[in-house]
Amino acid sequence: MEALVEQVRVLAKNGDETVRKSILDSLQSLRNSIETPDDTVQRFTFYNLQLAALRVGVDLKLFNFFADTEEPLTVVELSEKTKADKIFLGRILRYLASFGAIKETNKDTFTSTNITRTFSSSSFQAAICHYFDTMGPSIQKLPEFLKENHYKDPENSANTALQKAFNTDQPAFFWLQTQPEKMGFFQEYLTTNRTGRPTFLDVYPFLERATGLSPERVLFVDVGGGFGQQAIAFREKYPQLEGRVIVQDLAPTLAHALKHPKVGTSEQDFFQPQTIKGAKFYYLRNIFHDWPDDKAKIILKNTVDALADDSLILIDDMVLPNVGVHWQAAQLDILMMTTLAARERTQDQWYQLLENAGLKVNSITTYTSSLKDSILEVVPI
Ligand SMILES: C[S@@+](CC[C@H](N)C(=O)[O-])C[C@H]1O[C@@H](n2cnc3c(N)ncnc32)[C@H](O)[C@@H]1O
């Protein structure tokens, strides 16, 4: 058995991302196929308890204490560091070890695993807090919300399970701005979300497409660009391309934008007419998946109205296959439904949305294997 596990480990280590993902998927279907009904029930019904235990681990900084040393730590040592009760701590550590978040090496003694190291990073801790504090209560309300709404596909961003969970009538992004701690977790998580994965810069042929530039013309507008990571990465990859690079977003988000000497910022509500006219590239990453089709069409129209003849709209979002969506993509789609009445769109749904907005797709280039993150180059019909 050990030898077999080692063989699979080596295969995953030596394979590329597609091989590694396909091994993970095979392991999942292997587990599903050999579970008894009891195993299955124990596994599915305790998922939210795992996240709660990780949340406690973050609060007590357990993952940081483990990551700070190569040596195993005892319950007594951790009790001194955290000021938590020894008996309680022993129980929570045992539970965290039971699903691999840490490893038990001896009686009342634990050490780190690769999962501990992942959760010692502040942005992944922020992910735990975001998914537990904001998404958790919303997910809990999803079945009741759907039942009350007669299982209609949610379309109103001010009426989702999130509003029900937090007793608000504001859409998630506006509501989040009134919740500094939750907003902080979300923003911190976003800053490194997708770190290490390929990006649009690895696949889109900017040098080939960047014609008609001049120092006066805006080169690249990152619409709803958040803190500006993509715009900065673009500017740094292509310093030779003439023209300004600008990040647009709402003022509260821009207040946290990263500073870069060659990237400007400009306040823009994308539901209002686009104020930067005739730029070469209008780039929108992870914007449309936040909004239902009627809202997405307004954003598209505001962008189209600002285009010059040779401008290009670049949409960076997931393009799901019409059949055989990976579980990681499918779960994100349901999350979008839960908090934003939004969706991850299939290829057919993208074509439909864009055609309805008077646009045609020049190309779709997919750059991640399971989520199918893709860059769509789009122009008016
Ligand atoms: C999912 S984030 C994507 C951010 C960035 N494009 C990225 O990929 O990292 C959505 C962004 O849309 C911004 N946003 C939400 N409503 C907006 C509006 N009405 N006008 C402009 N930006 C908005 C949010 O502040 C947030 O930065």
TrEMBL record:
Domain O-methyltransferase dimerisation stretches: 52-120
Start and end residues of each O-methyltransferase C-terminal domain: 219-359
Keywords: Methyltransferase, S-adenosyl-L-methionine, Transferase
Gene3D superfamilies with a match to the protein in the record: Vaccinia Virus protein VP39, Winged helix-like DNA-binding domain superfamily/Winged helix DNA-binding domain
GO molecular function: O-methyltransferase activity; protein dimerization activity
A GO biological-process term: methylation
Residues of the active site: H289 (proton acceptor)
PANTHER family documented for this protein: HYPOTHETICAL O-METHYLTRANSFERASE (EUROFUNG)-RELATED, PUTATIVE (AFU_ORTHOLOGUE AFUA_4G14580)-RELATED
The name this protein goes by in its record: O-methyltransferase domain-containing protein
